[in-house]
Design a protein that fits this description.
The complex is a heterodimer of chains A (355) and B (363). By secondary structure, chain A is an alpha+beta fold. In chain A, 48% of the residues lie in helices and 17% in strands. Chain A has three domains: 3-87, PH-domain like; 90-127; 130-345, no CATH class. Chain A has helices at 78-81, 92-97, 99-124, 130-141, 152-165, 196-201, 205-220, 223-241, 245-251, 259-275, 281-289, 296-305, 311-321, 333-340, 342-345, and strands spanning 6-12, 20-26, 31-36, 39-44, 48-54, 57-62, 69-73, 148-149, 173-177, 184-187, 191-195. The longest helix of chain A has 26 residues, at 99-124. In chain A, 34% of the residues are buried. The chains are: A alpha+beta (355), B alpha+beta (363).
């Protein structure tokens, strides 16, 4: 046999640490004969797998005996080299395509995946049946134990307020939460909560109607479901890059709406108020109170940073909606007072100590 | 059969002949591929790096070989996501729902459960990562491993760590050495088990530096404050004194963080010398010679490389740390190659999922 088909070789049988030294000779068919002073064996060439290159040597394994190692010099004679398995650098896919091409393909797939995850909630959210969202919401937040304020008069007044801004057959569930913060939230499952702090802050029932209408807008425009899906999608996407399980899991807790969603909810509220002939001026003065006047510039910055649009801008939109129209009061003095005293007069309401 | 017998005392038993330029040819494409795959390639990237580092590491007269695969690391990660992250997410959901419904106590208890589970699994993950690394490391075709699943070690990790902290942390050296001993005594390479009997007494003096630090710092504060104020007063009267004071406070902050960091490094340097030096394998004994100064140089080098490459240099840290480990690792004694037969331990099919998920380093 000519020297083109043989080379010096070292091998380990995989059972003991003893190194065998000698030569490897190709028999012209499918077998490589290993011969040395400490032992001889034959290896089927299709059984060989490329393992790695290390300091001027090539290492091969055997599929049938994973611990076997054959070590050949890197400059194997070409006749023999053409019979041995090919070298691998990055792993199967990248080697086949080349680094540049593979990177470009991976990047394109990644960008598509990110785009899909970012846009999917916007078209998927509104398509989730409302009954599913309601079940999900029930599972997530339930009935809040006994933390919502109830009095017969207050409940009646709140129902009247809700009728004005939520004409749908199956209405959202609205409640006043015993939390001393000027805020309101729309929760999964068509639950809307006005915080007692906001109720106390309100100067007119029209203000409450505006805020309630805004939150109902979030529910009706399916923003809640969209935000839930977006959070979920992001957490899945980030789990690839993010090694910390904790961050991924707990990141789900935070939710927010886009600025466009806030505008849509405002529009929804104005349309309903217009239909029910409720003055939007109360809501306008509410936004002016929470930071419209004298700090326009500062708020313009906050408006861009935070997800909510600038309050001054929102107040202006509500003021313009009032032009050239006449309105009727949404609630009587007594009814407004009944909502204001709901939390105070509810004998067994509990604190929201986890917010 | 002839007996091959290795005399080991002649030269360093461990050697490393990699160089950072070759490593860069692996690390930089890895970084690119990791970015364009949104991080998914990192399992294969880790594997390629280890292959390079292992294959350029010599033990006596033969190179090490890393036989782990990116696929098994990826599968390990997926399993952790499926078996741990998903249930934790569900539990979080249930716990929140319970709190919302007014069952605060039960909800809070369920909320604590994942924290306890993470504590337990951190211990299990440490054990299994070591087992995985040994089972994928080959030398002369022989590998290591362990038949222990590490579930009991997880419990030990919990109670020993807890007890270590109880007497104002005084038992931490004991919990650390004892866990090292427990972990390594369950590991084997080829047919022989490792033995480790590190003595916490030998690292305790260094550990006490942590308790001494506040007193040294207090004395330092008095001196620095007084000299700073006096120097300031000498230059610019009352106003100078307050400026001098301010300078002294800044100096003290630096002193505090650097001082505490230095104490931590001094402790870890001693700790690794002790635990590696107390670890044996058959007739082989190991030692780790890195001094506090070596560690300080390593860490300062790390920081400089990362800062001056605007962060890109972090890809070289694994290379630096491995080289540091191998350069300072020594072994002496005899290996009877005839008797060194293949390990019979079971090999886990999946990689370091748990360790990866909890972001715990190797050494």
């Amino acid at each position: 046999m000519e020297s083109n088909f043989q080379t010096s070789a070292q091998w380990y049988d995989g059972h003991s640490a003893i190194r065998h030294q000698g030569e490897a000779v190709w028999d012209g068919a499918d077998t490589l004969a290993l011969r040395g002073p400490t032992g001889a064996m034959e290896v089927a060439i299709p059984d060989l797998e490329y393992s790695e290159e290390r300091g001027g040597e090539l290492v091969y394994r055997r599929t049938s005996e994973p611990n076997f190692r054959l070590i050949l010099p890197a400059d194997i004679p070409p006749g023999l080299a053409s019979r041995l398995p090919e070298k691998q650098v990055y792993g199967a896919w990248v080697d086949k395509l080349g680094l540049g091409k593979a990177s470009a393909i991976f990047a394109a797939v990644s960008v598509a995946a990110v785009a899909l995850f970012l846009t999917a909630p916007d078209w998927l959210g509104p398509r989730v049946p409302e009954s599913w969202e309601r079940n999900l919401g029930d599972a997530m937040v339930g009935d809040f134990g006994n933390r919502l304020c109830h009095t017969p008069e207050g409940d009646a007044a709140l129902a009247k307020l809700l009728d004005a801004v939520d004409p749908a057959e199956e209405q959202v569930r609205a409640g006043v939460a015993n939390i001393d913060m000027v805020n309101a939230v729309a929760l999964p499952g068509g639950q809307v909560l006005l915080f007692d702090g906001l109720v106390q802050d309100a100067k007119t029932p029209e203000e409450l109607a505006g805020v309630l209408g805004h939150e109902v807008g979030h529910v009706r425009e399916r923003h809640v479901m969209t935000a839930l899906l977006r959070q979920f999608g992001m957490s899945i996407l980030l789990s690839g890059a993010n090694t910390s399980v904790g961050e991924t899991v707990f990141g789900l807790a935070a939710m927010g709406y886009s600025r466009d969603a806030e505008r849509e909810a405002d529009e929804y509220a104005r349309e309903r108020m217009d239909e029910s002939r409720i003055s939007p001026l109360g809501t306008a003065s509410f936004f002016e109170r929470i930071g419209g006047e004298g700090e326009g510039e500062e708020n313009a910055i906050i408006g861009w940073v935070s997800s909510h649009p600038d309050p001054a801008e929102r107040a202006k939109a509500y003021r313009e909606a009032a032009k050239g129209k006449t309105f009727v009061p949404v609630l009587s003095e007594e009814e407004f007072a009944a909502i204001k005293s709901m939390c105070e007069k509810d004998p067994d309401v509990e604190e929201f100590d986890f917010f | 059969m002839n007996t091959q017998y290795e005399q080991m005392e002649a030269e360093s038993a461990f050697g490393f002949d990699g160089n950072w330029k070759d490593f860069a040819r692996i690390a930089l494409p890895n970084l690119l591929l990791t970015i364009v795959t949104l991080g998914i390639y990192r399992f294969w990237a880790t594997t390629r790096e280890r292959r390079y580092l292992w294959s350029h590491t010599r033990f006596v007269d033969e190179r090490l070989e890393w036989t782990g695969t990116g696929k098994e690391l990826f599968v390990g990660f997926l399993m952790v996501m499926l078996l741990f992250a998903l249930p934790v997410f569900g539990l979080q959901f249930v716990s929140q729902a319970l709190i919302m419904r007014g069952n605060e106590a039960l909800g809070a208890a369920l909320g604590i459960l994942p924290i306890v589970a993470i504590f337990y699994l951190t211990g299990v993950a440490r054990f299994r990562a070591l087992r995985y690394r040994l089972s994928r490391t080959r030398w002369r075709g022989i590998r290591g491993g362990s038949n222990d699943q590490g579930l009991k070690y997880g419990l030990s990790y919990m109670w020993k760590t807890f007890v270590g902290y109880i007497p104002i942390g005084l038992l931490i050296p004991w919990s650390m050495t004892s866990l090292w001993n427990e972990r390594w005594s369950k590991m084997s390479f080829g047919p022989y088990e490792f033995e480790a009997n590190a003595d916490p007494g030998n690292v305790f003096a260094r550990f006490l530096l942590f308790y001494l630090a506040p007193f040294i710092l207090f004395a330092g504060a008095l001196i620095a404050g007084a000299t700073g104020a006096l120097a300031g007063y000498g230059i610019g009267g009352e106003e100078g004194a307050s400026i001098g004071m301010f300078g002294a406070i800044i100096f003290l902050f630096l002193f505090f963080y650097l001082g505490l960091g230095l104490i931590a490094v001094a402790f870890y340097a001693k700790f690794y010398r002790e635990v590696v030096g107390s670890t044996r394998w058959k007739d082989l004994h190991f030692s780790f010679e890195a001094s506090t100064m070596d560690w300080v140089k390593l860490l300062i080098g790390d920081a400089l490389i990362v800062v001056f490459t605007l962060g890109l240099g972090f890809v070289f840290l694994s290379y630096r740390h491995w080289k540091f480990l191998i350069v300072h690792l020594e072994a002496g004694g005899d290996i009877l190659l005839d008797e060194l037969t293949q390990s019979t331990t079971k090999t886990a099919r999946h990689g370091e999922g748990l360790l990866d998920a909890f972001d715990i380093g190797a050494f």
